[in-house]
Structure formats: structure tokens, C-alpha cells
Please model this.
Amino acid sequence: MARVLVGVKRVIDYAVKVRVKPEKNGVVTQGVKHSMNPFDEIAVEEAVKMKEKKLATEVIAVSVGPTQSQEVIRTALAMGADRGVHVEVSAAEYDLLQPIHVSKILAKLALDEKADLVILGKQAIDDDANQTAQMTAAVLDWPQGTFCNKVEKTDAGLTIAREIDGGLETIKTKLPAVLSADLRLNTPRYATLPNIMKAKKKPLKKVTPKDLGVDTTPRIEVISVEDPPVRQAGAAVADVDALVAKLKAGGHI
Amino acid sequence: MSQLRSKVITLYKHLQYLGRDYPGLNGPQKFRKQVHDAFMKNKDEQDPKKIVALLAQGRYLAKEVEALYSLKKYRTVKQRYND
Model:
């Protein structure tokens, strides 16, 4: 195993309360704290651990997005990645960028950088699509190990424990492969200030989707973004008869 | 002595940096003030042994805060996606 490619996404911080814009065409991102997607942090940590165990020689962090996405690449570099690739997409285009585009970009980069393993977070906490890893594997025609709980190197490939409903499933894959990290794969390390400063000296390459030959014309149009429905207030009833009458009136019995 | 001094400054900077994410209303301000006060309280300490002990205490605190952040994040994400 030589190179590991890790995808990182800049999302609104997990602790921030997300608000919908009054125009209902998206959520408020101006002046809101952003950070690396928690699942991507786990993916970076796993790649860095592999490097520390000498299973990998180089860890490359990739992010697709506007200029600010470089922040999360820096964080990944501070956590121990060796170099970064920033695929620059304009903010307007980024709003309509879909996992299909990202997976094509990642697949192209994985081939260009001669990566043997691609590790991604299982989903981003902003759009919750949970599609990028699966589609990247499909585009590359590589085996996939999704929702990884444990990854171990064996002779020819990897043994992966996957999180499934009510338990774990163990699978074996050959390399190269695409993995997606679930929550319990590991505990990500904290990017300390000295490491962030050191990360500024690590190389960061900038490319555009056009350089990679990937068409990012939007396939969708956002019609409306709405808040989730607010829970209706309940009411106290005097006795059982009143309750039954209310339920009947509501058509529940 | 000068080596210890730089270690103390590094620890102070690290704690101040960690404080930026401290949870709660005015959490960062409160935490950073507390760190500042704790350092000021011991600013006249001259005994190298005591300074080393205080450094160890500070590093322990930093680890605890890092663990707190990671646990908070884990719990929030788990609650949203795994329960």
C-alpha cells in the first residue's frame, strides 16, 4: 500500500444551530462557524494511523469547494496528512454541486495521484447525502467498504468490519479500494496550534474541475428550502371521555 | 530556567487556543480568563520543581479539555445519526 487519498468537506460546525435564509433558497452561511465534517476527521485520522503503522507512505487530503475549503485541508494537514489538493469550485457553482460531481473528481484524482486507497467520511453533516464513497467506488470500478468500524491490513488486501443494522459485518476486499468511515472507527486527534502553523508549510496544489476533465454543470435546481415543521403544542384533557371525544374528532379511532 | 519559561509560554498559548471552542455562553471568554488567572497566580514561582509540577498539571488539563471536545462531538453526532 502506498498512497491514501482522503476527502474532506468544509461544513457548518456541528454545534451551530442552522438557520434557513428568509428567501428560502438555502441556509445562512455568512458569519457562521465552519469546520471539517466530523466523519471526514475520522477518515483523516484513519489514514494518518495507517501512515504511523507504516502501512501507507503518503496521505493526500482533497477538498472540493470554494477558496475557504483550504481551511479544512490545512486542518487535515495539521492532523498529519502530507499534502493537499484543493479542487476549486466557485461559490455559486458549489451550491448546486452534487455527490455525482464530487465522486467523479475524486475518482479522477485517485487515478492521477496513483492512490491505492480512498478513505471518505460516510456522509457530510450538511447535506447528509451518503453517496460520495459509493459512487466514487462505482466510477473507479474498485471494491468498496462502507461504514467502516474497523480496518485491518491482511496479506493481499483489507479486512473490514462494517456497521450494519444491529451488528457488524466482516468483509475482505482487495486493493485498491474505497472506504467510508463510520463514527466508531477511531477517535480523531486534535489539531494543535503548532501543528496548524507547521501545516502552512506543507504543499497544497490547486486545480479546477476543468483541469480534471469533469463537467460540473448543475443537474438540479433548488426550488425551496424549508425549516422542519414545528411540533404542535399539546393540550390537557379533563377525563377519559373528553380524551375519547377528542381522539374521535381527530379521526384517530 | 529559560527553557522552562518557553515551555510555560507554549502551554499558555495552547490552552488559550483550546479555549476558543469551549462550550457554553461566553464559554471561551470564561475559560481563557480562568487560564490567565491561574497563570498569573503562579507567576512569581521560582522553584524549578514546582514549575515542572505546574506544567504537568496544565498539560493534564489540556488533555482533559481535548477529551471533552471529542466526547461532546461524538455524542452529538451519535445522537443525530445512530439513535
Chain A is about 30% helix and 25% strand. Residues 49 and 55 of chain A are 9 Å apart (CA to CA). The helical segments of chain A are 38-52, 70-79, 91-95, 99-112, 132-140, 193-199, 240-250.
